[in-house]
Amino acid sequence: MHPAPSVIVFTTLSGLGFGLLFWLGLGLPAVTGWVAFVMFVIAYAMAVGGLLASTFHLGRPERAMKAFKQWRSSWLSREGCCAVGALVVMGLYALGAVFFGQTWTLLGWIGALLSLLTVFTTSMIYTQLKTIPRWNMGLTPVMFLSFSLAGGALMAGQVRLAIVLLLIAAIVQLAYWKQGDLAFAVSGTNMGTATGLGDRGEVRAFEPPHTGTNYLLREFVHVVGRKHAAKLRVISFALAFALPLAILLVTILGNTGHHVLPFFAVLSHLAGVATSRWLFFAQAEHVVGLYYGKR
After folding, report:
1. Could you please report the per-residue DSSP string of 72-121?
2. pTM score over 0.85
3. Is 30 exposed, middle or buried (CB count within 10 Å of its CB: 0-12, 13-18, 19+)?
């Protein structure tokens, strides 16, 4: 029972891709021609690749278009609308930068805003779920946005800005882990509240409801050992923040390897964020686990 690779790829790549589009829309860096072409290709490959990966987790991928119709009530639908809007607007902005050597500022700002909204709506898909206290926190969208902005700045080559944003994202990550570890207990959810029988005394399961696995256990009940989770957190933090920050500081202080070293910082950050995302899903304590004696 492990988190689906598709959702990890989706949240990791799309967050970084739209983060890069955000900074490109603001003109950071103000690139044109072939340089702009390469940077937009990378941004679109990550953003679109992440979105496509998410469709593999759908039960009926051919019905994905129907998700756009529920934008008034569904964060998933809002995410789709914002993503399409961001990709279209930034596509027009890219055409101006690549083929005409023009940076249409207003269009770029609109595209940057839509890119940021896409990341926010993605985070709200998880934040809204009261059945998963570890996700149902104000720090969840803050974490998604801080990761996207820091990773985007790193990929955009904004070294000094990336250092500040990586430090902020690192602090947010630590705060999220600390608050998340207490979220299930603080929510007050137990077998009594889950069944509605708590007012009659202590409620416990007489026997397991199933002798084998099922959909709920595969999708919503993941048990990660504390020692295993602690090691992965150290690895994630080191790769996503500590190592990239060290590389960037060496780049600034030594004024060497201006292009090579930041490339390794990007790879390290990508691996660290992917590990963090795995923990994000693997440690999600869904209240349905109470029914199966897993909480």
Report:
1. TT-HHHHHHHHHHHHHHHHHHHHHHHHHS----HHHHHHHHHHHHHHHHH
2. yes
3. exposed
Phi, psi angle pair for 285, to nearest 5°: -95, 90
What is the pLDDT confidence band of residue 209, given thresholds at 50, 70 and 90?
A: low
Q: Is the peptide bond before 262 cis (omega within 30 degrees of 0)?
A: no
Burial class (CB in 10 A: 0-12, 13-18, 19+), 47: buried
Dihedral pair phi/psi, residue 206, rounded to 5°: -75, -40
Burial (CB < 10 A; 0-12, 13-18, 19+), residue 194, is middle
Q: Which residue has the tokens 């953003």?
A: 47
Alpha helices in the chain (DSSP H): 5-25, 33-55, 75-99, 105-127, 139-155, 159-187, 191-195, 215-220, 226-237, 243-254, 260-282
pLDDT tens, position by position, 76-110: 899 999 999 999 999 999 999 999 999 999 999 99
Q: Locate tokens 């693997």: which residue?
A: 282
Question: Residue 155's pLDDT is what?
Answer: 96
Token pair of 102 as six digits: 């023009």
Residue that the structure tokens 């990929």 belong to: 155
Residue 207: both structure tokens together: 């026997």
* H or E element in which residue 71 lies: none
Q: How far apart are CA 105 and CA 179, in angstroms?
A: 40
Q: Exposed (0-12), middle (13-18) or buried (19+): which is 167, by Cβ within 10 Å? A: middle
Enter the tokens of residue 127. Answer: 């934040």
Check: CB of residue 22 under 8 Å from CB of residue 115.
yes
